[in-house]
Inverse folding.
């Protein structure tokens, strides 16, 4: 195997074999439609992308989504012809792969972190590490162990969990695809992407973050005490015997008048400004969330909380009775990234499971605040939004006939839509509807979030339909539209 590039057919075949079944019963399952031609097309795309294109499509580290798009289409039953056609479309914006200036070894691993020129070097490094140690051990060591976080004051800090969650969670998404589909190449690419990300979120993950269990509870109490602005605020954040739900945390942030960001020049600068101004407050709120991985079923319960929260922030946060629905680009990534949480859990020990889920919560809180912290009128959303798709026909008329499975037209439209993110979010909502669609009104009635008692499993159907309405129904020849990048800032 080359030390800087992997182009040998046997190596590529090992990196990108036929996809396997998901690792967990609550990981996304495949839709019918797959055949030998779609598998062949998928593997061609994965291998050709690996050889030809960089993980970033430009020099400001916007991400290459080719593999994500192809895997979403494959998982939703798309044909081989469709997979190849969309690949040709997606290659038009890519940046050619480059050879790493130097081989990455344990001795210089930290030296080149954050430098995109060494991406191929990190690909080779992680491929060899997985061959020696296995995927689970490599994830534990390089992403969650304290050895690869901050090592005190000085340059060239590893900060690998920060890098893993940087870039709007794209490395987590990339590795998550690898775990879900059993593709070593996706795991390797995602870890290499992690290594060349900048550690922008390091202020969210200080050394105390990596303490779990009873010590973590003590740290949460210390943060609460140090940041309490009055007795009422302090009392509302004391950890309750029943535990603290993510919705409780969301409700407390909504009532905190300090956390009202203002729109800046662009989303990236808004995000960094949020970190600079509110990192301590965000850590304070994230630390209030309770999780005990020693309890049977606790991890599944806490994953469900995060999945609902990501979908609520996107769908309810994007809805207004006056303005209608806004399909916000950055919130969309909260939904698509949450899809992969169940596929990580089988690979991680309980400590790392907690670190993953808590880091994920920290990031979705940060992005929610950075994009304007929109209010959540849950009752209005659940009583004003449709559960039946409009079924536009050729952009001329609208059918009012009931669709007995509303996700069938949603999926048919999403897989041929040219936008590479739409299929991913609709696959997410379809899966969440499968797993959580039976939740009835009142399921969240004991949380602090106003209106949460009105939520039920139709949330995911409503979100999918609103998203299709906003982006255009591709199968029905509506014009393709784009995501919104404006955020939800008060004017």
């Amino acid at each position: 195997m080359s030390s800087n590039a992997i182009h040998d057919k046997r190596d590529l075949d090992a990196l990108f074999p036929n996809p396997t079944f998901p690792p967990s019963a609550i990981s996304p399952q495949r839709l019918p439609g797959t055949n030998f031609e779609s598998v062949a097309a998928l593997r061609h795309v994965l291998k050709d992308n690996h050889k030809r294109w960089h993980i970033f499509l430009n020099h400001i580290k916007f991400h290459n989504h080719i593999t994500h798009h192809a895997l979403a289409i494959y998982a939703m039953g798309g044909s081989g012809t469709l997979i190849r056609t969309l690949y040709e479309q997606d290659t038009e914006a890519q940046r050619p792969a480059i050879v790493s200036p130097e081989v990455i070894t344990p001795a210089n691993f930290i030296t080149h972190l954050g430098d995109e020129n060494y991406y191929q070097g990190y690909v080779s490094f992680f491929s060899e590490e997985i061959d020696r140690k296995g995927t689970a051990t490599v994830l534990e060591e390089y992403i969650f162990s304290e050895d690869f976080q901050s090592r005190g004051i000085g340059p060239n800090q590893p900060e690998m969990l920060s890098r893993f969650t940087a870039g709007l969670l794209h490395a987590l998404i990339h590795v998550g695809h690898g775990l879900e589909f059993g593709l070593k190449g996706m795991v390797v690419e995602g870890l290499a992407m992690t290594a060349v990300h900048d550690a922008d979120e390091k202020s969210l993950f200080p050394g105390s973050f990596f303490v779990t269990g009873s010590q973590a509870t003590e740290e949460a109490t210390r943060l609460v005490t140090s940041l309490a602005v009055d007795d009422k605020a302090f009392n509302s954040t004391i950890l309750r015997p029943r535990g603290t739900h993510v919705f409780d945390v969301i409700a407390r942030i909504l009532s905190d008048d300090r956390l009202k960001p203002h729109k800046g020049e662009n989303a990236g600068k808004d995000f960094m400004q949020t970190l600079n101004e509110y990192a301590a407050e965000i850590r304070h709120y994230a630390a209030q969330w309770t999780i005990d991985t020693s309890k049977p079923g606790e991890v599944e319960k806490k994953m469900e909380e995060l999945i609902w929260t990501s979908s609520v922030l996107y769908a309810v946060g994007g809805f207004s009775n006056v303005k209608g629905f806004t399909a916000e680009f950055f919130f969309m990534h909260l939904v698509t990234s949450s899809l992969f949480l169940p596929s990580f859990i089988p690979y991680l020990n309980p400590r790392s499971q907690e670190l993953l889920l808590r880091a994920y919560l920290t990031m979705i809180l940060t992005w929610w605040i950075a994009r304007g912290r929109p209010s959540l009128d849950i009752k209005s959303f659940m009583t004003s939004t449709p559960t039946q798709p409009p079924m536009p026909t050729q952009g001329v008329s609208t059918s009012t006939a009931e669709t007995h499975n509303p996700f069938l037209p949603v999926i048919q439209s999403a897989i041929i839509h040219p936008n590479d993110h739409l299929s991913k979010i609709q696959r997410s909502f379809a899966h969440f509807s499968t797993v959580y669609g039976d939740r009835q009104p009142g399921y969240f009635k004991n949380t602090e979030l106003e209106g949460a008692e009105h939520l039920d499993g139709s949330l995911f159907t409503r979100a999918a339909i609103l998203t299709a309405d906003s982006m255009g129904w591709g199968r029905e020849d509506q014009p393709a539209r784009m995501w919104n990048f404006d955020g939800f800032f008060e004017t």
Notes: Confidence is low (pLDDT under 50) at residues 214-222, 224-241. The longest helix spans residues 160-181.
